[in-house]
Predict the structure.
Amino acid sequence: MTSPVQGSADIAVIGLAVMGQNLILNMADHGFTVVAFNRTQAKVNEFVKGPALGKSIIGATSVTQMLSLLKKPRRVMLMVKAGSVVDDLIAQISPELEAGDILIDGGNSHYADTTRRQKELAAKGLLYIGTGVSGGEEGARNGPSIMPGGDARAWPHVKPIFQAIAAKTDAGEPCCEWVGEGGAGHFVKMVHNGIEYGDMQLICEAWQSLRKITKLSDDSIAKTFADWNKGELASYLIEITADILQRRESDGSLLVDKILDAAGQKGTGKWTGINALDLGVPLTLITEAVFARSLSALKDERVAAHGLVSRVSSQGPQLNTADVHDALLAAKIVSYAQGFMLMRAAAAEQGWILDYGSIAMLWRGGCIIRSTFLNRIRDAFVRDASLASLLIDPWFSELLARLQPGWRRATAAALLAGVAVPANASALTFFDGYTSAESGASLLQAQRDYFGAHTYERTDKLRGEFHHTDWIGSGAFAKSGTYNA
């Protein structure tokens, strides 16, 4: 542990759970002097006498001492559980800070809380950053993806630290760049986590299809995922899936078969779905992935239903691994497309100026959803910064045209065989809906007008003109435009 010297440390980190500890060690490895503090003093003592021993890390015994050890402007990073704990810590620390000092929330806070906190602290002359940190324990220790947003005046003061400790692309670019004002950083991290939900669910569905429809052996499935990680599907999640599917117990059985199929969640996927509903963005795949976890948690009910309800399935078309591969890749593209659509809608509502190509590169290394085709997403937004959807970008459009036959065969085979593929099926349905010039919504609008006089627009009239039909001959009259359809 470095000897305490007043005003010598570069940054303080509060919260010594695994993410906080690993970020501190990462910062120290890159030449920064870090003050470690935790509300439980024993945790500080344990850390500085253990993993931090011999490093440029100082243990603080109080908030006052912690702040006295920092250079000005003082930089304090909170690595604690989202919610009231963050507000409590801010209330405790902020009275001891001076104008220009910087507070950073590195947890998974809801973006609206970050926006609120930035405004409240700005009124006191304090600078606030809400930053998403992705990559789990390994990323925090060796290089995470970092998505900072909030008060832009704070960015120059934290940029050297954040970009030093962040993951780097193959070209040496740090996976950390300023995202935008207010809660933009935490919103982008939330969408990242939503895409993560989708990716994980899609991989699980592909695994089930390979097991139950193609009837591959466990060893063959593990090899298949390892092979996929060398091609277009190369990504962190595919890589660890191949590793997981090779892990066996001492008796030779697969470990994954001993793990109860009841998934947990911490809320960021749910937040993503709720925000999509609020903004009117059809985030179908990610929302289905969240619901799939909720359904998995009904383990006892599912077991009972399995014994009580007859399920009738039929043999679909022959399915091969290439079709499952194509379905997984195509649906994955839809997941990212929907995520970027959500960010665009949120930016319009919040007044954020987001660089979508830059955001794709933030996820190129260190984070859970890192994958090879993020470069292609960056390229798409370089070609057209106002791109409405990745689905209409020429490169992705051509790729999806190639993938569609296998995607449709794999989805049909799963549905006919009774293998649940909610995320993949919703992705294909979204694709078909988004790329269809016509839909059944004309009948839906007629229904709304029939029972509620909600009005409708006509194909032979200008957009923005609203009309009503007296469907039941009541003689009632609703003026066009009375109701906003």
Q: What stands out?
A: The chain has a mean pLDDT of 92.
